[in-house]
Design brief:
By secondary structure, this protein is an alpha/beta fold. The strands form three sheets. Strands 1, 2, 3, 6, 7, 14 and 15 form a seven-stranded mixed sheet that branches. The protein has a six-stranded parallel sheet with strand order 10-9-8-11-12-13, sandwiched between helices. Helix 4 packs across helix 8. The site of one zinc ion has 9 residues, from helix 2.
Length: 319
C-alpha cells in the first residue's frame, strides 16, 4: 500500500488536548508495518506518524503543564483508560483500551495534529526539532527495552537502525560494551556502529567475540531469536523490541536452557518518556537523520524498507 496526500479539516482540540503545528515527524518501522497491513485494526483513514515534534498553537480547555508556543513531543502512547488492571498497576503500556498515535489516533505525517496533553512530553532544548523526532519512539521504546536488560554490560543490538544507533551512544556513555549485529554484508552499517563506539560489529548470524549479557532485537526478523540466544550467556536475556516480527523458527531447547529469557517489550509508559529524556539530557546523543519533505513520505518508507536509511528518517512539512 502507499500513502496518499489529502486536505483534511483543521483538527480542533477538545478538553485536555493540544493543537500542535508539526515541525518534524520521525518515520518508524511500525509505520511500515501499519502501511503494509501487518498490524490489525488501524483507524482508517489514518494519518500515520508517532515521533512528532511541534509547537502548541491552541490549548484546549483544562490543559495543565503546557503553554502556548511550547515545543512538545507526541509519542506512540496517546491515551489510556486509567481503570483497567494494567493502568491501576502502573503498566499503562499494556492498557486494554490504549490508543496509539498514528495507529488508532491520527498522527504526525501532517501539518497539524491534536494530542492529549497528559501524554505529551517536553523536549530538552539542546535537541533540534528534526534530531529530536526519532527520540520519541526509536529512542524511547528502545530505552524501555534497554531497561529490560537491567545492568547488562555486554549488550548486543540486532538491527542497527534508528533505535540501536541512539541506544548504543547511551550505552557507551554508561560504560557498557556494545555489540552491533547488522544485515549480512552491510559494511556501511558496521562502520556506522564503530563510529558510534561499538566494541564489535558483525553479521547477524555471527558469534560475538564475548558472550552477551543481553541482546535487543530491533529488526522484525524471527530468525534472529535463536541467533541471539546462541550469543547470550546463561541467565542472559533476549529482548524483542519491535511491535511485529516474522515467525520465530523452532530451535533446540538447549538454546534456552541455562535460565536464558526471551521476552517482548510493548509500547511505553509516560514514566519511560520522562526518564529517557532526562537520561539523554545527562548523556547527550547525536541522532543521525535523513530528512524528507512530508510529500515524500512514501519514498522515506521505501528507503526504510530497503535498509537505505542511516540512522532515522524524518519528515518535515513545507511552510
Ligand atoms: Zn487501562
Ligand atoms: Zn515507533
Amino acid at each position: 500500500m502507499a500513502l496518499r496526500a489529502a486536505e483534511l479539516p483543521m483538527p480542533r482540540p477538545s478538553r485536555g488536548e493540544l493543537l500542535i503545528e508539526v515541525a518534524a515527524c520521525g518515520v518508524c518501522r511500525t509505520d511500515l508495518h501499519i502501511v503494509d497491513g501487518e498490524l490489525l485494526r488501524p483507524r482508517l483513514p489514518l494519518v500515520p506518524g508517532h515521533e512528532i515534534v511541534g509547537r502548541i498553537i491552541t490549548l484546549g480547555p483544562g490543559v495543565e503543564g503546557f503553554a502556548l508556543n511550547d515545543r512538545v513531543g507526541v509519542p506512540w502512547l496517546g491515551w489510556t483508560c486509567g481503570e483497567c488492571r494494567y493502568c491501576l498497576a502502573g503498566e499503562e503500556n499494556l492498557c486494554e483500551q490504549a490508543r496509539f498515535t498514528g495507529y488508532t489516533l491520527d498522527g504526525g505525517y501532517a501539518d497539524h495534529v491534536v494530542a492529549d496533553a497528559r501524554y505529551c512530553l517536553h523536549i530538552p532544548p539542546s535537541y533540534a526539532d528534526t534530531t529530536a523526532a526519532p527520540l520519541l519512539c526509536a529512542g524511547l521504546i528502545g530505552f524501555r527495552a534497554l531497561r529490560m536488560a537491567s545492568n547488562a554490560q555486554n549488550i548486543g543490538f540486532y538491527g542497527f537502525g534508528a533505535a540501536a544507533h541512539i541506544l548504543a551512544q547511551l550505552c557507551v556513555a554508561q560504560g557498557r560494551r556494545v555489540y552491533a549485529f547488522v544485515r549480512p554484508g552491510d559494511a556501511d552499517a558496521r562502520a556506522f556502529a564503530y563510529e558510534l563506539g561499538a566494541t564489535w560489529s558483525g553479521d547477524s548470524d555471527a558469534q560475538p567475540p564475548a558472550p552477551l549479557d543481553a541482546a535487543l532485537i530491533f529488526a522484525p526478523v524471527g530468525d534472529l531469536v535463536p541467533a541471539a540466544l546462541r550469543a547470550v550467556r546463561k541467565g542472559g536475556s533476549v529482548i524483542c523490541a519491535g511491535i511485529h516480527m516474522s515467525d520465530i523458527p523452532s530451535f533446540p531447547y538447549e538454546l534456552l536452557w541455562g535460565e536464558r529469557v526471551v521476552r517482548s517489550v510493548a509500547n511505553l509508559t509516560r514514566a519511560d518518556g520522562v526518564e529517557f529524556l532526562a537520561a539523554i539530557e545527562r548523556h547527550p546523543v547525536h541522532t543521525q537523520i535523513q530528512t524528507y519533505d512530508l510529500a515524500e513520505a512514501n519514498r522515506a518508507l521505501g528507503d526504510l524498507r530497503a535498509g537505505l536509511v542511516r540512522g532515522a528518517a524524518v519528515l518535515v512539512p513545507k511552510r
